[in-house]
Amino acid sequence: MASPPSKPNPKDLVVLPCSGLDKEAGSASRELALILEEKGAKIICPVLFRHSQERYAKDIGTGNLLVIDGCKTGCATRLAAEHGLKIARKLNITEALRSMGSRPGKNLRLSDNISNLLPSIAQEILEQMYSTQVVHAADDVFRKNVTYREFSIDKFVFRVPESDYFFNENDCWARVSENLARIGISDYLQQRISDIILFEPPKVGTEIDIFNEAGSLETTKIAIDIISPFSGKVVAVNQEVVEMPEIINQDPYERGWTVELELYDRDSEIELLMDCDTYFDYVKNKAEREYKELYGS
Amino acid sequence: MSENKFMGVPRDKIPWYPEIDYEKCNYCMDCVKVCPHNVFECRESEEKKLVVANTENCVVFCKACAKVCGPDALSFPDNKQILNLIKKLQKEVKE
After folding, report:
1. pLDDT digit string (tens) for A128-146?
2. Chain A window 225-244: which residues touch B at a Cβ cutoff of 8 Å?
3. Contact B52, B18 (CB under 8 A)
4. Which residue, of A130, A162, A182, is where some domain finishes?
5. Shared-domain flag, residues A101 and A229
6. Distance from B31 to chain A by nearest Cα, in Å?
7. According to the model, what pLDDT value does residue B1 have?
8. Which residues from chain B sit within 8 angstroms of residue A71, using beta carbons?
9. For residues A253 and A88, which has the higher predicted lDDT (pLDDT)?
10. A121 and A212 assigned to the same domain
11. What distance in Å separates the CA atoms of residue A186 and residue A164, rounded to the nearest whole number?
């Protein structure tokens, strides 16, 4: 008999909330942190943390840090970045509430409506971070070995697969098999943005239009969108990359895939993309041009 | 002449770049920090301290700057409309 799925056990979860007092979203972040605390998580007070990091040294060491931002200003994320904290998961409470048809306002106190939605957001986070129910990616479909072509500019070596991949001009790739595709960013793009510290994935089940965002990446300095080469439904997210985004830097075309899509319109959309040979010439030209602009000849 | 093209279409024919709503912008300059393509320019001594100076540097379909904009002051055109325009221009280029 199959055992029932285990309940999330967030005893190693550490929450750094925004707690801002300039709008309702700050109060919502704080309240969400309190709900998670009741379920076993530990809270880092952002105000105290600024002045007394050592108080939280033990908690931060668990490596399971959830940052809750109230709005796009991202104060909690910035605080984490300033102190070099490794973020396991990031949540923007305004966006999470918007996806549920609600919108925090300017009032500082929490409305009943938003207050009622927070427990389900907490539950969803815990399920995503701790559930034993894994969405299985189609590993068997994408098992075939990948062979590469390379070009060099100065000390930089760039790889492009020899076949089975398609690229858009945003330097994002799709590896296609039947009606499934894995997507990711090219070796050129990962070298250009350098050390990736955060992959924010879309939710499984999200429907993505061609050339729309399919998650985003952050380095210590910049952020980029992953621009999807195809339309489709997200059927899997690479959890290994969510936990260790540096894998994209190490192996951008294989272990570094980000999202798996069930394609809607493969045959017509493929016409808008470049095959491996075309992308090789395109990206070589682009990299050479950029090198010249930066370093002269 | 510029060789700057996107999907075979001259980049200057594709109106993809952020627009700043100056009523909302608080000049935090987060967009400047997050964008690696120098799309924005800071102008400390002017009334509009931030401008979209290099529109063709903006990566078509990327909205990373809008995502970090706290006051929601940046907007982009509709992706589908831009894609349709690119397809139309691709046909014209081929003809």
Report:
1. 777 655 566 777 778 888 9
2. 225, 227
3. yes
4. A130
5. no
6. 9
7. 41
8. 70
9. A253
10. no
11. 14
Question: Predicted confidence band at A258 (pLDDT cuts at 50, 70, 90)?
Answer: very high
Number of domains in chain A: 2
pLDDT at position B89: 95
Tell me which chain B residues have a C-beta less than 8 angstroms from the C-beta of A210. Answer: 83
For B1-25, the pLDDT digits (tens) are 446 899 999 999 999 999 999 999 9
- Nearest-CA residue of chain B relative to A95? B67
Which residues are registered as beta bridge partners of A184?
A173
Which residues of chain A lie closer than 8 angstroms to B33, CB-CB? Answer: 221-222
Q: Give the tokens for residue A111.
A: 């409305």
| Residue A297's pLDDT band (cuts 50, 70, 90) | low
Instruction: Please state the rounded mean pLDDT for residues A89-115.
Output: 91
Amino acid at A283: V
Q: If you search the block for the tokens 């105000």, which residue do you land on?
A: A47
Q: How many interface pairs between A and B have CB atoms less than 8 angstroms apart?
A: 54
Q: Do B63 and A213 touch (CB under 8 A)?
A: yes
pLDDT at B37 over 60: yes
Nearest residue of B to residue A167 by CA position? B7
Nearest to B69 among A72, A211, A213 (CB): A72
Contact in structure between B50 and B43 (CB atoms under 8 Å): yes
Contact assignment for A72 to B62 by CB distance below 8 Å: no
A246 in B contact zone (CB under 8 Å): no
**In this complex, is the C-beta atom of B91 within 8 Å of any C-beta atom belonging to chain A?**
no
Instruction: Say if B24 is an interface residue toward chain A (CB within 8 Å).
Output: no
Q: Which residues of A touch B14 (CB under 8 A)?
A: none
Half-sphere exposure of A295 (CA within 13 A, CB side): 8
In this prediction, the answer to ipTM > 0.95 reads no
pLDDT in tens, A196-254: 998 999 989 999 999 999 999 998 888 899 999 999 999 999 999 998 999 999 999 99
Cα dist from A7 to A39, A74, A232, whole Å: 11, 30, 31
Domain enclosing residue A28, as ranges: 10-130
The answer to whether A225 contacts B35, with C-beta atoms less than 8 Å apart, is no
Is residue A124 domain-shared with residue A165, that is, in the same domain? Answer: no
Q: Which two three-digit tokens encode residue A130? A: 């701790």
Pairing status of strand A65-69 against strand A89-92: parallel
B5-94: which CATH topology?
Alpha-Beta Plaits (3.30.70)
